[in-house]
Amino acid sequence: MCDPAEHQKTTHLRHPRLTISLLHSSVCLTSVYLKSLRELWAILAHSRSFLQPCCFVCITTNITMLFRNSVRASSRVLLRPQAARMAPASALHTTRILSNAHDKKTPLAAGSFARTDDSITVEYPEDHELPSSVPVQGRGGLHMKRTLASFSLEGKVGVVTGGARGLGLVMGQGMVISGANLAIVDMNKEEAEKQAAELVEVFRKENPGSARVPKVTAHYADVSDADSVQGCISSIIAEHGKIDSLVTSAGFTENFDAINYPIDRMRKLWNVNVDGTYLFAITVAKHLMERKAPGSMVFIGSMSGSIVNIPQPQAPYNAAKAAVRHMAASLAVEWAHAGIRVNCISPGYMLTALTEKILDDNPELKKQWTSLIPQGKMGQPVDLMGPVTFLLSDASQYVTGADLRVDGGYTVT
């Protein structure tokens, strides 16, 4: 920073990439806060993708001893520009970062970091094109760590839709490891049968002395078709005798700008994500009420149901997951009298086999996603094993209507 320029009401501290403007009544405080200003500049200098030439910082007349904290809070907002619009007023109260919109040398328009990019288009592949998943190794077996008995799913029968791949398969395996028998539901019954056998094999390998091996079965269902869902539930009850818990993991996402999104694909997305969740939930609820038995359901939503992801455009998916989240809350209230708990898990960015393939083709997208996650990394499917087990178990008996976000802190910034 060079010498202040003379001005009757305002003092300017200039730098090739930054101008700091101090209103006259706060000029006398510059020496006190000069160190803090330098700290701010050091942070800004490492944020070149956001801080363009001729950016402007204004420190208002109500500057206080809280300025140092404000600098740090503001710097975090700068490094995560999309969150600035959601930050509380206190975070930006004494320090404002303004891009010089009139500067023709600035390549990025104001607000560009908080907008979707309609050049990103990802169409969900056909079923035969989906990569196969592999069961998790090393999570079962005997261990010496003590845990609450209420986390056990012993004696329960669980159902997971979309359970032959990805997140559904891993959550289903978590249920098996925790003691439940499992029914895997998927459009691809052949893949479901393969994974059912794999889960049993992994359990045997990791629990060689176990007196009981869980029963894992495979079932076909088109989750968007009521008759198909009813037939699937009937086949599960015929195999297992009952159903105690449900995880609705069947769903998919696509990236199109809204105007160009094919309407038939939008309807399919809504039918699978929303209608499929609803149809399975009400069918299992009827079974539980007929038995006068308590039960637990976990709907798999997404952080996209609470925020708008950037840069990929996906308005119908975001709306669908918001519907799933609120459906869970609504049914939790409606069915509480019957002892049926309904909760939602909203994952953030998860590195499934399909997501890895997409990011391999778009490496810059992965960098942008992880830059917006406080933990600095994407989640792994195994990160959902614990949350789903907790919500299905008696350990969460007084938890219903909740939305558990598993997103590395993405949605709290």
Automatic annotation (TrEMBL):
One of its GO terms (biological process) is mannitol metabolic process. InterPro entries: NAD(P)-bd_dom_sf (IPR036291), Sc_DH/Rdtase_CS (IPR020904), SDR_fam (IPR002347). Signal peptide: none annotated. Gene3D superfamilies: NAD(P)-binding Rossmann-like Domain. The lineage of its organism: Eukaryota, Fungi, Dikarya, Ascomycota, Pezizomycotina. PROSITE patterns: ADH_SHORT. This is D-arabinitol dehydrogenase ArbD. It comes from the Eukaryota. SUPFAM superfamilies: NAD(P)-binding Rossmann-fold domains. Belongs to the short-chain dehydrogenases/reductases (SDR) family. It comes from Pseudomassariella vexata. GO terms for molecular function: mannitol 2-dehydrogenase (NADP+) activity; oxidoreductase activity, acting on NAD(P)H, oxygen as acceptor. It holds the Pfam family adh_short_C2. Keywords: NADP, Oxidoreductase.
